[in-house]
Design goal:
Helices cover about 35% and strands about 25% of the residues. The chain is α+β, with helices and mostly antiparallel strands and about 325 residues long. It holds the Pfam family MATH_2.
Length: about 325
């Protein structure tokens, strides 16, 4: 029978064995004249002493080794010690100011370059000696494992419905305190606070001349007359101001709808809407639309749309088709 004290979760722990080491390096610069092939075999040149891991070291350099065309390098412990020292050494060679150039050379070119360095004034070589001294091993506590994630599932956050709610507010006209009247008599109720918050340029254009300061305070909806804008384009402009989205357009009507909306966006200084309409018109450029689209881009200063039209006409086949369609 298992006791109550043994029914709990087992305890856990971890540790690791790590090497206690010291790391350092020493740079040994050798003038080119020191690499003399005529030097006697076995000639020894010692570096200045340096310290890594509380021990003193030297580099022993033999300009001419027993193998022709080679030099010899050794790392030597330059002190008397009571017990052996374990270490690791790595030598690397860097040609000063010409390291990358040297590495890209072919083998024969590198040999010629090294031969040139043996002459006085022929350059220098820096030998880097990386030293690692192992002082022993020690135990270290391992990092604690992260706690297990909770199995409880968080409820997903529903998507924002702000655009839908504002769109419904515009469509219903609830609380509208301004009415826009177009040339054809169409009227569009809206909300001053929304339009003012969306764009200072739109607010100044729409309320600067025709609005009455006391209308909102008296509960009456002031009338602002808007000239030179079609009903479809103005309706889309208002809906963009409320929802930040382009209107849904039926197939075949995209070109004239986005062209009218681009003109309205340019008039009321809505640069983002202007760019969105221009991008839609870029997609619909063909032999039948390029003439009007190019004129629209020129009139409303849409450089990207203009370049797209010119790129289309740059192809001879497209140019011939446009000339045949419009009689240019």
């Amino acid at each position: 029978m298992v006791s109550a004290s043994g029914r709990g979760k087992p305890s856990s722990s971890a540790s690791s064995i790590v090497a206690d080491r010291s790391v350092g390096y020493h740079d040994l610069k050798i003038d080119g004249c020191a690499l003399t092939f005529g030097a006697p075999t076995g000639r020894l040149i010692k570096s200045c002493p340096f310290t890594v891991g509380s021990h003193r070291w030297r580099i022993w350099f033999y300009p001419v080794s027993s193998l022709p065309g080679y030099v010899s390098l050794y790392l030597v412990l330059d002190e008397i010690v009571a017990k052996s020292v374990t270490g690791q050494v790595q030598f690397s060679v860097v040609l000063e100011k010409r390291a990358l150039f040297f590495l890209k050379k072919e083998k024969k070119e590198r040999e010629n370059l090294l031969v040139g360095m043996t002459r006085p004034g022929g350059g220098s070589v820096t030998i880097r000696c990386d030293v690692t001294v192992f002082n022993g091993f020690r135990a270290a506590a391992a990092a604690a494992a992260p706690p297990p994630k909770s199995k409880s599932k968080l409820a997903p956050v529903p998507p924002s419905e702000l655009q839908k709610h504002l769109g419904d507010l515009l469509q219903s006209g609830r609380g509208a305190d301004v009415v826009f009247e177009l040339d054809g008599g169409e009227r569009f109720p809206a909300h001053r606070c929304v339009l003012s918050a969306r764009s200072a340029a739109v607010s100044a254009e729409l309320f600067g001349a025709g609005a009455k300061e006391g209308d909102a305070a008296n509960g009456a909806a002031g009338v602002v007359r808007v000239e030179g804008v079609g009903a479809g384009a103005f309706r889309a402009l208002l809906r963009y101001a409320y929802t930040d989205a382009l209107p849904e357009v039926e197939r075949g009507e995209e070109n004239w709808v986005y062209a009218d909306l681009l003109a309205a966006a340019d008039r009321f200084s809505s640069e983002r809407l202007k760019v969105m309409c221009a991008n839609k018109l870029c997609v619909g450029i063909d032999a039948g639309t390029v003439k009007n689209t190019l004129a629209l881009a020129e009139w409303h200063r849409c450089n990207g749309l203009k370049e797209a039209c010119l790129d289309f006409l740059a192809h001879p086949a497209n140019l011939r088709a446009a000339i045949g369609t419009h009689g240019l």
